[in-house]
Amino acid sequence: MQYPETLPLEDHEVVLSFDDGPLPRNSNQILDILASECVKANFFLIGQMARAYPEGVRKLRDAGHTIGTHSQNHPLTMNHMPIERAKQEIDDGIASVKAALGDDDSALAPFFRIPGLERATVVEDYLASQGIQTWSADFPADDWRHISSSRVYELAMKRIEAKGRGILLLHDIHERTVAALPRILHELKARGYRIVHVVAATPERPATPTDPQQWHLHPTSETVAISHWPKIPNFVFAEAGMLPAPSLSDFAGQDGRLVPGDEPFDRAGRRSHGIPLPQEAPWPRQSPLALDIAATALPVPALSIFEIQENPRATAQSLLPPSQRAEQTVPPDRETDGIAKLIRGHGGASRRGMRAKLHSVSRGNRVAAHGRRNTLKHLVQIKKRSV
Ligand SMILES: [Zn+2]
Fold first, then answer.
1. What pLDDT is stored for residue 216 in this prediction?
2. How far apart, in whole angstroms, are the C-alpha atoms of residue 134 and residue 44?
3. From ligand 1's centre to the CA of 374, what distance in Å?
4. Has residue 141 got a pLDDT over 80?
5. Which of 152, 231, 286, 298 has the most CB atoms lying inside 10 A of its own CB?
6. What DSSP element (H or E) covers 51?
7. Distance 292 CA to ligand 1 centre (A)
8. 198: pLDDT strictly greater than 70
9. How far is the CA of 381 from the centre of ligand 1 (A)?
């Protein structure tokens, strides 16, 4: 969602990821559901939760899931907090999960997801310097918002289908996620998806060999045309409610006539490099415009036509204590859907098409701004199995 690169997945491959746990009441049910479908997932734990429920951390390890971290206190300000504080959040979160794992902390993977996905280059640089890979996601299902479990299911499936592959962001601490997960897994299976489990590479378990292009969600290739979208102009909206309709003279030549109805020059007598010009142009004649039906004024385009969703990033909630949760609503799926539509080739001059193009511009800018991240590709091994 924020970076030009994601995991090197094939089409119809999905990684399940769960943030913010463990919270036994719901996390244990998530574990049971995953076990019943024989799938493994990637978890990103909060240090405070690991301190409160160390048994939950060990359950994840014993079930064979991948354990990464997600900060100590889940601050939603890592994009602008002093780097020393951000380092503390990262380090404390890791220490808390290691403490829960006890002697066998080799189960902790060097994977980190920034709370609320509020990324900052200095934070990513620090993580990289520690040999830790920064994770984001390819699609959320908004399961931290107050929506129904069937809405979580719908959003998950819609967004997975739009991109075809990627990392699904869920939260194992919510009841609605527990309720939606069996249906999501069932439907993924029915539609031919495979659940992919990502584990940390080790000397005995070397990183999956990949080529750089596989890390791009939509890799460039010699057969696919690429282009860079132009920057969006700064529109200035006039106060006038109406603008004058174009007048005939806007389209006409010096003499005020549209395309001439009759031959403007003597074709028969003209030659070009000695070759006579054809008597008739091969294209049809223009018929005169019915100017009397044209309106003399047209409405100014509405501001909403040029609307751009500027904050598509998923935001997550702070966890503890629940009474102080900062619920943040996110523009749901409009941008990602717009991009997906554009990528599938639905451009067009319609209003929808225009929205999709504008969204794509916004995405392009963001990608360009964040392109410096070191993905640490040597850190992952990708295990593939059917649902
Ligand atoms: Zn979170």
1. 84
2. 11
3. 22
4. yes
5. 152
6. helix 47-52
7. 62
8. yes
9. 24
Q: What is the distance in A from the centroid of ligand 1 to the CA of 309?
A: 22
**pTM of the model as a whole:** 0.61
Tell me the CA–centroid distance for residue 139 and ligand 1, in Å. Answer: 14
pLDDT at 302: 79
Q: Which CATH superfamily is domain 13-200 in?
A: Glycoside hydrolase/deacetylase (3.20.20.370)
Q: How far is the CA of 144 from the centre of ligand 1 (A)?
A: 9
Number of C-beta neighbours around residue 55 at 10 A:
10
- What does the pLDDT read at residue 380? 78
| Per-domain residue ranges of the chain | 13-200, 326-386
Query: CB within 5 A of ion ligand 1: which residues?
Result: 19-20, 115, 316
CA–centroid distance, residue 284 to ligand 1 (Å): 64
pLDDT given for residue 348 in this prediction? 36
Give yes or no for residue 314 having a pLDDT over 90.
Answer: no
Read off the tokens for 353.
Answer: 């098409």
pLDDT in tens, 127-138: 999 999 999 999
Residue 264 falls in which region: left (phi positive, over 0), alpha (psi -120 to 50) or beta: alpha
CA of 70 to the centre of ligand 1 (A): 7
